[in-house]
Amino acid sequence: MKKSFLIGNVPIGDGSVTVQSMTNTPTYDVEKTSEQIAKLAEAGADIVRVSVPDTESAEAIKYLVQKSPVPLVGDIHFSSKSALIAIENGIHKIRVNPGNMKEKEIREIVKKCIEYDIPIRVGINKGSAGLKSPEELARLTYDSAKKIEDMGWDKLVLAVKTSNVSETVTAYRKLASLCDYPLHVGLTEAGTAQSGEIKSAIAIGSLLLDGIGNTVRVSLSGNPVQEVYAAQKILRAVGIDKRFVEVIACPTCARTCFPVDEVAKSIEEATKFIKKPIKIAVMGCVVNGLGEAGDADFGVAGGKDHSLIFRNGQKLKTVPNDAILQELLRLTEEF
Ligand code: SF4
């Protein structure tokens, strides 16, 4: 069993897997940062991290936590000073990197976290600690957590990130074998939206399928809202999040009778805020249509001018091809 506790009002270690992201506005710019936090929360982030590089940013935490709809994590490097201010100003969790902080500074942060009942993420990145192997990274992170535990605090979340898929998976597997702390999983510096999403999906998805990971972050360059959507797609692909409309679509071929991709994308877009487990199949022809999409709640199998609408593997009706989208949307609403 994992240790379980709250980050603000969000549980961790209780069997759920939450989605995190991180702002990229200057934290001291409270208007811009609040606005970005609200957008991340609206997209589905459960927890948002903000950098706290200086005392001005630490002072801004007071305002940010009041405005934020989700718990906030303060990201601290090098010095304890801004961490102590952020904790007094109501931050819900602190992330420290023992790879770049003196033990004396860590001790000060831990004392303050105990006083304010604030969990700590111990997150070491392979690059920042100058380590050679993922196993070393896991061991160092575990040892750092043990030191904090010896200081009297065990509301700890651990993370061991690298920018390499295989090393990240190895490091987390090792760490999971060493401890029962909740784990924050992700790749660091994964890259731009497309390549970063794929690398993150392989690393995070592999770990989640192993039962490793309690909160995830997909690190991408650019708009952090994309990180939230990417994380949600991973949770859905591995079956952790089932409350969404899944649109399955055939890859299309010479038999395709209508614009499958266009219809599938339109349904995905129209249903993206529906939080119910519904499976809709968009199949380009009747050859494989019914057979391969038999487990869908409903769907379409294309015909020359008219296409077959089916529900639970049974024929429901035929509709003209230019009415397919409208009919599928109507069935979604009815469902
Ligand atoms: S379902 Fe039909 S159109 Fe789609 S790929 Fe298969 S054979 Fe081709």
Low-confidence stretches: none
At the first level of CATH, the class of the largest domain is Alpha Beta
CATH architecture field of the largest domain: Alpha-Beta Barrel
Biggest sheet character: 8 strands, parallel
Q: Structural class of the helices, strands and pairings?
A: alpha/beta
Relative strand content: 15-25%
Shape annotation: elongated
Number of helices: 12
Q: In the CATH hierarchy, what is the superfamily of the largest domain? A: Dihydropteroate synthase-like
Instruction: Report the CATH topology name of the largest domain.
Output: TIM Barrel
Instruction: Give me the side-by-side strand order of the main sheet.
Output: 8-7-6-5-4-3-10-9
Q: What's the mean pLDDT score?
A: 93
- Give the CA-CA distance, first to last residue: 38 Å
Tell me the count of domains.
2
* Helix and strand pattern: EEEHEHEHEHEHHEHEHEHEHEHEEEH
Describe the protein's architecture and organization.
The two termini are 38 Å apart. The chain folds into two domains: 5-237, Dihydropteroate synthase-like (TIM Barrel); 245-334, Sulfite Reductase Hemoprotein, domain 1 (2-Layer Sandwich), CATH 3.30.413.10. The chain has an eight-stranded parallel sheet. It has helices spanning 30-43, 55-67, 81-88, 103-116, 126-129, 134-150, 165-178, 193-209, 225-237, 260-270, 286-292, 324-334, and strands at 5-7, 10-12, 18-22, 47-51, 72-76, 93-96, 120-125, 156-161, 184-185, 215-217, 245-249, 278-283, 298-301, 306-311, 314-320. The chain is α/β, with parallel strands linked by helices. The chain has twelve helices and 15 strands. Strand 5, helix 3 and strand 6 form a beta-alpha-beta unit. The relative contact order is 0.09. Bound molecules: iron/sulfur cluster. The site of iron/sulfur cluster has 12 residues, from helix 11.
